[in-house]
Specification:
The chain is α/β, with parallel strands linked by helices and about 800 residues long. About 50% of the residues lie in helices and about 15% in strands. The chain has 33 helices and 22 strands. The structure holds ligand CKZ. Ligand CKZ binds next to α6.
Length: about 800
Amino acid sequence: MMTANQELTVQTLKDDIQRHIALTLGSDPYPPRKDRYYLGLCRSVRDRLLAKWLETQRGYYDSITKRVYYMSLEFLPGRFLMNYIQALGIEEECRQAVRDFGFDLDDLEEEEWNPGLGNGGLGRLASCYLDSMATCKIPGYGYGILYDYGIFYQTIVNGYQQECADNWLRQDSPWVLKRGHFMSKVSFYGRSEVYFDSAGQERFRWVDTEAVMAMACDVMVPGYQNGNVVNMRLWKAISSRDFELEQFNQGDYIGAVQAKVETENISKVLYPNDHSPHGKELRLKQQYFFVAATFQDILRRFRKNNYSSFDCFPSQVTVQLNDTHPAISIAELMRLLIDEESLSWDTAWTICQQTFAYTNHTVLPEALETWSADLLGHILPRHMQIIFEINHHFLEDVRHRFPGRVDLVRGLSIIGEGHPKTVRMAHLAIVGSHTVNGVAALHSQIIKTKLFRDFNLLYSDKFTNVTNGVTPRRWLFQCNPALSNLISSVIGPNWVTNLEELQGLVPYAQDLEFQKKWQRVRRLNKKLLARYVLRKLGLGINPSTLFDVHVKRIHEYKRQLLNILHVVTLYNRIRQQPGVSFTPRTVFFAGKAAPGYFQAKLIIKLINSVAQVVNADPQVSGMLNVVFLPNYCVSQAEKIIPATDLSEQISTAGMEASGTGNMKFAINGALTIGTLDGANVEIRQAVGEENFFLFGHTEEEVERLRSNGYNPWQLYEESVELRKVLDMIATGYFSPEAPDLFKPIVDALLPQGDYYMVLADYEHYVDTQFAVSEAYADTEQWTRMSILNTARMGYFSSDRSVLDYAQNIWKVAPLL
Ligand code: CKZ
């Protein structure tokens, strides 16, 4: 039933939509075109949010509260339209309004392009945190880069990944508010010049620089039905006028245009190499570009409050560094305080340390950022000088506290003394921050005892843990409406902003009536996914099979390979035992490989080759299917996760810092098969050991195996089943046209020593998968476990994470 008030809003909404189609888009509302009505709806929703956004920002402006600056080179917000509609609480009205025009809201939603301004978990985490800051009213801002090209669009051609450019701004996004009048100047290159000030003090200034302008582009991040809207400010590079004029005046028209294009390249493209920095000049320029522009904003806001002294800066500003990607901030703030604000080194350094906190997201050595000191010195000469100075002061302190420990000094130094000399960004971030956190309990422990052990010796109070979380708005309420409705029907709707309330479902886990409803919802979601797969790939899949899902970036440590070895094992078992009953499965994979990561790309090809053989074989038909879904992204995740029975979280123990997909699946009622890695450890504790399929070596066992001379050949020799699987792959069973195609994969597992311990965990994994199949066959038991997973996942809300940061690291309180 619609209330009178709702009818009023439906009518005004409809008027707004048509007005926008005519007056904003300059189109005729008749005949009704889907893309026009989509944009008309966007504009109408945007208007309603803008008012709240202005109010929130004015509120910050008037109050003298400490603000959080969440700095990240990546954000993965996903589609906005439905998120905005639900945050405003006008979903029913919007449905009705567009229905009156002959459209379906879910259909219109598909018109929106995903902003892929991130690689994976790290970028998505940043967006979950902004959502939670908005909902929990933590005063803060997100800062990043408006890339013209986000993460590449993946297609699969002949089983291989192909990358296409993702020009998401080709048609202006209605959600990006460009502040053309609001530009900050950012400098590069030049040199550091010494001079003496009027007091005879030696000072430095950065001269002969080249300038680039940063244009502010704002995106609204609304809290859930609380009127609060956080701002995400993304910078876009624009060539500087002065610079252009000078060049044009020299008469070199083509050269001038070329130079303009080159400077604007800074924000052109997101680097797609998740976990493997390339040390490229453009990437460093991106980092500094966004840091410099952001700090001008920070200082401008600080000054606006008429502060007499910078001493109170840390009581007004707290900066969270999302990994080391923005860590050049530390040198930049030092430069601003010393060169421009004339503070002493010691005062500036104290302010710096009190301002920054650094989150580490990975222990993989190849992902720890370093820059060649020459390159950094070339692009940012003054910053390089400051970094050397920071290092000098820091190492003096180390020598003082640990006399004679040359080894310690070498290990801790911000400068890696090789050829070429490098700047270790993690060391800079640790030294320049008051707090360093890992993203799950195990990961934070590894940071303290292994990765940064010597730093922990030096400052043990600095290191802490904040376990990641995900926003229940997008990852349950929005992506799984059927389950959300069922949950709210028994425990009310407050879980959306207080996820611990899901505990209220525990008593229903045994309730057969409720179980039936739970099964019906899960079945519906699986049908929706099956329909999507049919539409996208033309592949028919059976929704009553076990949906076994492995979606995330493709990386050797995440062990998609282990999963595919299991698939081949199942395939062989089914063929060898005709007539024996198996739990039918559909195994889904999705994920992108970094374009330069040969091995990961070959794994994609292997998955597709296995899928081709398995799906075409009548002997396993109905028992086993394999699907690779191209172009994994936020909106695809929203379709896959609610339909998943079994979540694959099978990284080599000690290598996945946290994982956040693992949380999204369990919240939606999937059961996990996983190793004791990252947040899996805490998830298992929360949902109960009996509701989690654990397998594999522990992190300590992996360490021990590696140092005691692990020999994968022995496993190969000892297991007939494993040997057969590897032989099939090695001899071209899945690639008859090129029998050697997958040799590099088998080589990594055998002659090259199997660094990721795939074979070491194989047998236990296969056995545990067998236990999964058995459990799935008992529907009542499985459903109970599924309900208990959802019920006990409250802790993994990003609201909890953000409030933890606020209380223990940022020292800010929620606004009232
Ligand atoms: O962060 C998630 C965790 C995951 C972790 C992921 C991450 O693997 O376990 O749940 C949120 O905490 N991503 C990165 N490091 N850890 C990462 C992302 C992008 C890039 C790099 C690391 C990137 C790099 C290095 C992009 C371009 C160049 C270089």
